[in-house]
Write a structure and sequence with these properties.
By secondary structure, this protein is an alpha/beta fold. 36% of the residues lie in helices and 11% in strands. The protein is globular. Residues 12-210 form the Integrase catalytic domain.
Length: 383
């Protein structure tokens, strides 16, 4: 912190704070060098050099839509819906399918038809044109970045919906709700404040805020003959959410071999707490408030601060996650039946004195620790 005597006036043309007070369009803000880099005098020699943390986000936002057939007209209609919902894109990458190529030819014909009668309109259309790029033929793996989101949708959609016949409105509702689930996943924390549990999600790039879902009763355990059509749709969404959210947490904590040093948990890291009964698009987040390293300086017990209370949990060493932290199960007083601890398969638990003290406080004394963990289906990380 600096004292008030060191504060100086900054001219309007060098003050990025004026953009906030006066307002600026998001498209202009994207290319504003002053907003992202600050005034030029900050780069002079009299200012100390500092490293700016950069978060590389590799997970794109997901936009899902359905078409009635695989024709060029259907694709053009889908493209128009996308532009009016998300805004016009500068570049468009697509597969080299026949309907896409046909649509490109039709768009070029329409563009030439519009450009011929009026040069002013032609220059405007050229300035607002979209650069359309096609992947190599029979090589959809070139678009693996965005195909991963579509694959995640298809995997659970086939297994949950199966042979159920859905109308166009029902299927579109399912697709859009799944899109909301995929775009609600946490990416990185918004700040390093221990009391701030807000995270950046793909929905922030689309609508500027978190995606919220309607609170509905849990229908996953009810027979379908007791449900009407829209209740069945709700059940499908809830089943897809439960399966996808569990697999997503597992992907954040991959079980690789110990050939290289893993990142250790530290105070201030944001974590995702695994809970089984959360509604769709809701994630239980927390900050590590305290750590308990073992004799080998590896952290396996942490204290997590959530919006409701503090949890003391047993956590495996973190594999690189997008939250720069670890995914941990909720472990509160004597409630081990609702938890799962991810460890090496077939490993025998061995604990240090600090972990044993925690176990004594949460479990009965007349059972051996490995037996307790086997009974409840828990596996612990060996020291």
């Amino acid at each position: 912190m600096t004292s008030s005597e060191q504060w100086c006036y900054v001219a309007t043309e060098d003050n990025p704070a004026d953009f906030v007070s006066r307002g600026m369009d998001s498209l202009k803000l994207k290319t504003c060098e002053l907003w992202w880099n600050g005034p030029k005098f900050l780069m002079s020699n009299q200012y100390p050099q500092r490293q700016i943390p950069v978060a590389v986000i590799k997970d794109p936002a997901v936009h899902l839509d359905i078409v009635t057939d695989l024709t060029s007209n259907a694709f053009i209609a889908t493209l128009k819906r996308f532009i009016f919902r998300r805004g016009k894109c500068a570049k468009l990458y697509s597969d080299n399918a026949t309907n896409f190529v046909g649509a490109n030819i039709e768009l070029k014909k329409m563009f030439n038809l519009v450009c011929k009668p009026d040069e002013a309109l032609a220059s405007y259309m050229a300035s607002e044109g979209i650069d359309w790029k096609f992947l190599p033929p029979r090589a959809p793996n070139f678009g693996g970045l965005w195909e991963a989101g579509v694959k995640s949708l298809k995997f659970y959609l086939k297994r949950v919906v199966g042979n159920i016949r859905l109308t166009y409105e029902e299927f579109l509702t399912v697709i859009i709700q799944i899109e909301g689930m995929l775009n609600s996943r946490p990416l990185v924390p918004l700040s390093s404040d221990l009391d701030d549990l807000n995270v950046l999600t793909p929905s922030h790039f689309l609508i500027g805020r978190l995606i919220t879902s309607i609170v509905e009763p849990d229908l996953t355990n009810l027979n379908e003959n007791r449900l009407d059509n829209w209740q069945k749709i709700t059940k499908i969404i809830q089943l897809i959410w439960k399966r996808w959210s569990v697999d997503y947490l597992n992907s954040l904590q991959q079980r690789n071999k110990w050939h290289f040093e893993k990142k250790n948990a530290k105070i201030g890291d944001m974590v995702i707490i695994k809970e089984d009964n959360l509604p769709s698009c809701q994630w239980s987040l927390g900050r590590i408030n305290n750590i308990y390293p073992g004799k080998d300086s590896k952290v396996r017990v942490v204290e997590v601060k959530t919006t409701r209370d503090k949890l003391t949990v047993i956590a495996r060493e973190s594999f690189s996650t997008r939250l720069s932290s670890l995914t941990i199960p909720a472990l509160q007083e004597r409630q081990c039946l609702q938890t799962t601890i991810f460890m090496q398969d077939g490993a025998t638990p061995h604990f240090g004195p600090q972990v044993k003290a925690l176990l004594r406080a949460n479990f009965t004394d007349n059972c051996d620790y490995p037996d307790i963990f086997r009974i409840h289906g828990l596996l612990a990380h060996p020291t």
